[in-house]
Amino acid sequence: MKLNQTNIERKLTDYLISVNSIELPASQNDILISIDSLKRKRLGSGPYPDVSLFEASNRIFSDIVILFGVYRLLTNPVVGNVRLPFTEYEVALGVKGGNDLRAISGNRRLVGEAFNVAPSFFQAKKSSTIKKLQLCEKADYRLIIFNADAVISPDDYLERSEPPMLYLPVDIWVDRRRFV
Q: How many domains, in total, are found in the chain?
């Protein structure tokens, strides 16, 4: 999906509407049946109707990090002290393999990954993501977008951002208020 100034707000709003359409599994008296339903029962609604609530929630939170991250890049193309030249981003939501986002402007290239992770897994996820990005084709910018609540001081990551490695923490709970 290509995202730019013209369509980002609509795409983000549509995605959030789709998430809000999810019909949660009914609570059961037997906790094991409830847990099994959350982990195994096909949702039948939302952006990932063919997977369980457990699997959909992981994909949805990663997608939201990507969408809000790209929204920030399109409305204010600065990461730390780095101004990015891109006006359009190609994003892949809910996909395993490949990169989550790419952008090209003239001869400048960006490749990026996004994730939503618990604080206890942040360092391991960041390390594996850096390795993945370093294996990518030539890029002037390598961007990691992540949930801000995964680290104690998100601003430290913004300050560390220098080409070629950029970090963009996203506070989905603050950014979400603009769209609901």
A: 1
